[in-house]
Every structure is written in structure tokens, then in C-alpha cells.
Amino acid sequence: QSVLTQPPSVSGAPGQRVTISCTGSGSNLGAGYEVHWYQQLPGTAPKLLVYGNINRPSGVPGRFSGSKSGTSASLAITGLQAEDEADYYCQSYDSSLSGSVFGGGTKLTVL
Amino acid sequence: QVQLVQSGAEVQKPGASVKVSCKASGYTFPTYGISWVRQAPGQGLEWMGWISAYNGNTNYALSFQGRVTITTDTSTSTAYMELRSLRSDDTAVYYCARAGGSGGAGTLWGQGTLVTVSS
């Protein structure tokens, strides 16, 4: 069981909007620690999509956006494209564990 | 260019140790830290630990404490991760990532190193 909980899978048709949730607790997201989001295509290293809750690195399309409230965070993807099909992970710091933690990952399927 | 290049795949026997390297280039190495993350076959990401490339301070995941050591060599801009007492469930791809702190985002990732533990 991951400290950060993500749905195992989500799906959407091309052009649609999907959201991926990341639920934590008072020792991580609820304590104010930032959340980061990654995209991992099959056989490749993770790629940073969102850092510090809402910020996008240079080169990441504006279709990807992050939000955070209390003990939860979300990654939204609008204008879904076939190449968005990948695994997505959230990450934060946990004070009880004194280290970083990842969510279990969410597989996005583009129908 | 800015990149992290990891050492090649390893096959080790149970009980042995493995040391994976991660060579940075294209940026000032001491400015950032390095995290190590692993991914078992078909599984999610697991954070192992972090080291400051500035002063060598480390922070290890509780599940790996006593079994993992992360070091840096600033003269070669290289980080190392050594995992001891290997078990079959340590078979995984091991990634290094540039990160500002233990909870920092991995802004740059190595290509990954497959470590297989098998008798």
C-alpha cells in the first residue's frame, strides 16, 4: 500500500479531459508538502510534468495542469491525445517517514 | 548537454552487493542533489534515498536504511548507489534523478540501470 493513493487506471477519448487524483494524509500533502507529477512511457525513465503543486517545466504542454487542496492533489489533462497514454505518478515528502514517497501510479488509456 | 548517464546492467547473486554509478554533465554538479528511485518489473516507483552533492548529506528511506549507501565524487560529477545483501526482490531498474532535496522534484533522470538478482 502506497502512502499516496492514486486510482489504478483512468481512461478517456481523444480530445476529452481526464483527472488523476493523489490522496495523502496529514504527514504529507496535508502538512503542506509539495506534490510533483511524472509521466512514464513504456520502457522509459519518468519525466517531470508538474512540480511544486502547479508549476510546469519548460517544454511541458499547457494541457497538463496540477492542483492541490488539503490532503489531496490532482493532475488534469485536457485535449487528450494518443501519445498521453502512459503511467502517471505523484510524489511528495512525508514527515512520518522522513523521506519522499510516490503514489502507486495510474495507467491512462486513451480510447 | 545536460544529462545523467548511468552504468550498465548488472547481474548479481543473492547476498552480494551492487554499486550503480550516475555521471552528471552539462550543469554545476554541487548545485543540486541526487535521488535514487527504483522500479521492480511491472511495479511502481520506489524512492530509496537522496544525497546533497554540495555537502554529502544523505537521507535514506526507512525500508533501505542499513542496506544502502549513496555517495558522490565531486571531482568526476558522479553519484553512486550501493545496495548490499541483495535479494531476488531487489531485481529492478534503478534510476538516479537530479533533485533539490529529499522531497524535491526529479527534474532530470538517468536512463536507468537494470539490476538482476539471481542464483
Explain this structure to me?
The complex is a heterodimer of chains A (111) and B (119). Chain A has strands at residues 9-12, 18-23, 36-40, 47-50, 64-69, 72-77, 86-94, 99-102, 106-110. Chain A is an all-beta fold and 111 residues long. Chain A has no helices and 9 strands. The mean pLDDT of chain A is 97. Chain B is mainly beta. Chain B is built from no helices and 11 strands. Chain B has strands at residues 3-6, 10-12, 18-25, 33-39, 45-52, 58-60, 68-73, 78-83, 92-99, 108-109, 113-117. In chain B, strands 2, 4, 5, 6, 9, 10 and 11 form a 7-stranded mixed beta sheet that branches. Chain B has a 4-stranded antiparallel beta sheet with strand order 1-3-8-7, with no helix packed on it. In chain B, strand 7 (68-73) and strand 8 form a beta hairpin. Chain B is globular, with a radius of gyration of 13 Å. Chain B starts with a strand and ends with a strand. The model of chain B has no long low-confidence stretch (mean pLDDT 96). The interface between A and B is medium-sized, with 27 and 23 residues.
Largest sheet of chain B: 7 strands, mixed
**What percentage of residues of chain A falls in helices of 4 or more residues?**
under 10%
General form of chain B: globular
Can you count the helices of chain B?
Answer: 0
What is the percent of helical residues of chain B?
under 10%
